[in-house]
Design goal:
alpha+beta, T-fold, three-stranded antiparallel sheet, globular, binds adenosine monophosphate, binds magnesium ion
């Protein structure tokens, strides 16, 4: 995944604690090996290479995550769309490569989750047009975190924090106190704009600073607006807090694309789901449940008063 994994857990038996760590790392490797678009032999890469010719038979796991992705496409009016990859593969953020406008627009015409044809009876996925590609980068890390937490729970571990990149989930508490996760200042890696206390919830942050380059004063980053095939630029970062990391991962990417107004409206309509947004001017915004009660404010300081974490 090209991602830093962190596991923190407590169990009185160190052998079980070690088993937990080993199980999580093994699961993360397994998910990377099957879902990475960069590993040629991965199930996802093979699907991309073959599904335009004929239906590709997938594992239950990959099929399930593609179905889950389509659920979020429906929920977000297409802001979350794994076929973004039909354009996404033309960008190379490390080497400051982007498609020219005509190439981008041509490829953007292929972005549409309706171009995926799923058949549950055979677990097959087909592309209805040549040139369509998928990438689970907006949801797979959250899924890996959820799987990891499930494995820890199976081992009887009840206090843990698992993080993969910007996606985390916690169970239990940390020696009688909540776990905490900081939201960094999108324009200053050394500063926090908020520190969030967490117990038995997941949290995901999507930001325009994670993978990007600048050209002619414009920031090209890894979250793509399916309508244009260009980077979404209304927000600098989106943090979602919710019950599971698959959902918070998909929703953080989605709200980044939807922008301030439509993004907050969506989050305010979902139960047990909260959001902290930093807009393009660096101003912070909160979903309804966090805003009036100042719930977060007690624990988090605004950007002007960074908290050491
Ligand atoms: P995250 O850091 O969770 O927001 O994930 C960003 C990743 O999501 C990118 O690196 C892409 O792999 C993927 N992605 C980008 N744009 C979209 C989109 N509109 N819908 C779904 N996935 C996307
Ligand atoms: Mg995400």
């Amino acid at each position: 995944m090209g991602t830093r994994i962190t596991i923190e857990l407590f169990h009185p038996d160190t052998a079980i604690a070690q088993q937990g760590i080993d199980a999580v790392l093994k699961e993360m490797r397994h998910i990377d090996t099957s879902m990475s678009p960069f590993i040629e032999s991965s199930e996802l890469a093979r699907l991309n290479a073959q599904a335009a010719q004929k239906p590709f038979r997938t594992s239950n796991e990959l099929f399930g995550l593609i179905q889950r992705s389509l659920y979020f496409s429906g929920l977000t009016g297409g802001a979350f769309d794994i076929t973004f990859a039909s354009v996404g593969f033309l960008y190379d953020y490390r080497n400051a490569v982007k498609p020219d406008e005509s190439r981008r627009l041509k490829a953007a015409a292929l972005i549409d989750y309706h171009n995926l044809v799923l058949d549950e009876t055979g677990n097959t996925v087909a592309f209805s047009k040549p040139g369509v590609r998928i990438d689970l980068g907006g949801i797979a890390k959250g899924y890996a975190v959820d799987r990891s937490i499930a494995l820890l729970q199976e081992l009887g571990i009840g206090h843990a924090l698992v993080t993969a990149g910007g996606d985390s989930r916690t169970i239990g508490d940390r020696w009688g106190r909540p776990w905490t996760i900081g939201i960094r200042d999108p324009r200053d890696a050394d500063k926090m704009v908020a520190v969030i206390p967490l117990q038995d919830v997941a949290i995901s942050t999507s930001g325009d600073y994670q993978r990007y380059f600048e050209k002619d004063g414009i920031r090209y980053h890894h979250i793509i607006d399916p309508k244009s095939g260009d980077s979404a630029r209304e927000l600098q970062s989106v943090t979602i807090i919710g019950p599971d990391a698959t959902s918070t991962d998909a929703l953080s990417t989605s709200v980044f694309v939807l922008g301030l107004e439509a993004g907050l409206k969506l989050i305010n309509s979902l139960p047990d789901t909260d959001a902290v947004l930093v807009d393009k001017h660096g101003k912070m915004h909160y979903s309804n449940d966090l805003e009036p009660a100042g719930k977060l404010r007690n624990n988090a300081k605004p950007a002007s008063q960074p908290v050491a974490h």
